[in-house]
Design brief:
This protein is of the alpha+beta class and about 425 residues long. It folds into two domains: about 90 residues; about 200 residues, Dna Topoisomerase Vi A Subunit, Chain: A, domain 2, CATH 3.40.1360. It contains 13 helices and 22 strands. Strands 13-14-15-16 form a four-stranded antiparallel beta sheet, with helices on one face. Strand 1 and strand 2 form a beta hairpin. Helix 1 packs across helix 5 and helix 4 crosses helix 5. The chain is globular and about 55 Å long. It starts with a strand and ends with a strand.
């Protein structure tokens, strides 16, 4: 970025609400430090009121997220966050394993405090001296997906349901405010492009054609779901016949990623990961009708259970992912009520509470329910004999937000404005 120099400091060519890409540099007009002259043209720009019509500039508004806020919100949820982007869960047990990125035999391991920090390392491709170096879950995300620091912060914030903070140096309407910490970084949201969407769609379509007959019935019986639910989710089978495929879609039902899971009868330990270059999305049934009440489930198999019970359901890959995409989907479908079905564990309860709070801040009638004490998730609840009426009539919980200030009073005046 080009810069111009005053007598005492150097300032980047930015305004209060974004980044400016000028054709030429500026210099201050003598006698008025709020006016800047474009070199070579004689045109003047007022830094207090904006830019003159004769000065060509491009203003980009970018949201901001504090990195420490992301680290604090992700503590305890790194396992679900990182498995959600494709790191196999089986290699995050603290023991030595082959590196999922560069291979080898036993060069990869997760640190002892992995759930709190999300730190892993590989002695070949992710160690001291590498770029990025290992350190925490943000660095792990950068290493695994090849993201910049800002893009990793944005993707994690989306998964955790963290909203932007308005950006340093300006409020919602662009008026100057006190500057923020330097660790508040700009980011650009990574999105699936047309090539990725076509690639994922083709992969999911070919896999769906393979899952027929005996294998389809066996998978449905193993998971305790219906064959129709698997068909509506377009579940498929990989070419080697070892894994099931679960398409992930955006709010417009486009396939932006595919989740892979080992078949229940294939290995003793189940594993889940994402197809290369997948983007985290939603599990949506084709031809789904949104009734008055929409249920949000955690995981692909729970979504299949909900669909088999006759519920209007949308699934997330885990309890802390695809929040922004879910908001877009709800804004489009406009259900009267949203109920989040939480897994019966601390991360599931925390993720459901955070999602409900975010929905209620958007003026959406939202609550969450938890399966009975002896059951882990909705699929186990369904397999124990629960039906659609049992889920509809189950007691729910909600999140009470703090009071909203509606009046303002000046310290030197008794007048109150409402």
């Amino acid at each position: 970025m080009r810069s111009f120099r005053t007598r005492h400091c150097a300032m980047p060519l930015t305004n209060r609400i974004g980044t400016v890409s000028p054709a030429k540099s500026l210099r201050p007009v003598r006698g008025d430090q709020s006016m800047w002259r474009q070199r070579g043209s004689g045109r003047r720009v007022d830094s207090r009121d904006g830019f003159s019509s004769s000065y060509s500039a491009r203003v980009i508004s970018m949201p901001y997220i504090h990195a420490d806020r992301v680290r604090s919100a992700a503590a305890g949820s790194w396992r679900s966050l990182l498995t959600g982007v494709g790191i196999p869960a089986l290699i995050l047990d603290g023991r030595n394993h082959p590196c999922p990125k560069c291979g080898g035999r036993d060069r990869f391991a997760a640190f002892a405090d992995f759930d709190r920090r999300g730190a892993v390392h590989c002695r070949r491709c992710f160690t001291r001296g590498c770029s990025p170096p290992p350190g925490d879950g943000i660095q792990t995300m950068r290493w695994w997906l090849g993201l910049s620091f800002g893009d990793a912060i944005k993707q994690l914030a989306d998964s955790l349901g963290i909203c932007d903070e308005g950006g340093p140096g300006n409020s919602i309407d662009g008026t100057p405010v006190a500057p923020r910490s330097t660790s508040t970084l700009p980011y650009r949201r990574p999105a699936a492009d047309a090539v990725d969407i076509d690639r994922m769609t083709q992969f999911a379509k070919e896999a769906h054609r393979r899952l027929t007959g005996l294998v389809l019935r066996r998978l449905a019986e193993s998971l305790g779901v219906t064959c129709d639910a698997l068909r509506s989710l377009r579940v498929g089978l990989t070419s080697d016949g070892r894994c099931s495929t679960w398409p992930m879609r955006d709010a417009s039902w486009r396939v932006i990623g595919v989740r892979l899971a080992t078949l229940p009868w294939g290995q003793a330990d189940a594993a889940k990961w994402s197809y290369p270059r997948s983007h985290s999305g939603l599990f949506l049934a084709r031809g789904m009708r949104i009734r008055r009440r929409l249920f949000v489930t955690e995981g692909a198999s729970d979504t299949a259970s909900a669909i088999g019970m006759g519920l209007s359901a949308v699934g997330r890959p885990n309890c802390a992912s695809s929040s922004e995409m879910l908001f877009q989907f709800i804004d489009q479908q406009r259900p009267q009520r949203v109920t989040v079905v939480a897994d019966h564990d601390p991360p599931g309860l925390e993720g459901a509470s955070r999602l409900v709070a975010a929905l209620r801040r958007r003026s959406i009638d939202a609550d969450f329910l938890v399966p009975p004490l002896y059951l882990m998730d909705l699929r186990a609840w369904c397999n124990s004999g629960a039906d659609r009426d049992a889920v509809y009539l189950a007691p729910t919980r909600t999140i009470r937000l703090g009071p909203v200030q509606t009046s303002f009073q000046f310290l030197n005046d008794e007048t109150s404005f409402v």
